[in-house]
Amino acid sequence: MFRQISQSVWASPQIGLADVDAAAAQGITLIINNRPEGESDDQTPGDAIAQAAAAAGLGYVAIPVTHAGFSQAQVTAMVDALKGEGKILAYCRSGTRSTLLWSLAQASLGADLDEVTAQAASAGYDVSPVRPLMDMLAAQAR
């Protein structure tokens, strides 16, 4: 269920409470919730995931991304979340928004965009919808 997109980051579709324990067993130290509350009736509320993460000794941060797109504040928040030590699991409905936000964060840090694109693709995600924004962020990072 968890798809590795980098040495320390995994993306996933919506997780449930049992998945928090599975993440902890896998060595995840931080869970990033990229799903807005109330997006779907079947999603586990972020507060429940946050409580389960705390009980498992994991960090938790919410950086909700709607279908409206990405903001600089979201990219900055993702960069800040990725600065920590340890393994990170980011999730949304399908894992796509989490991966796209990760790729934008990497671009803003000046990462090799072809490598970022390849890492996402190896996990089954296509970052081409945000590639122009990645290019812009990478140019600003230079």
TrEMBL record:
It holds the Pfam family BLH_phosphatase. InterPro entries: BLH_phosphatase-like, Prot-tyrosine_phosphatase-like. GO terms for molecular function: hydrolase activity. Residues 2-108 form the Beta-lactamase hydrolase-like protein phosphatase-like domain. It comes from the Bacteria. NCBIfam families: TIGR01244 family sulfur transferase (TIGR01244). This is Uncharacterized protein (TIGR01244 family). It comes from Novosphingobium sediminicola.
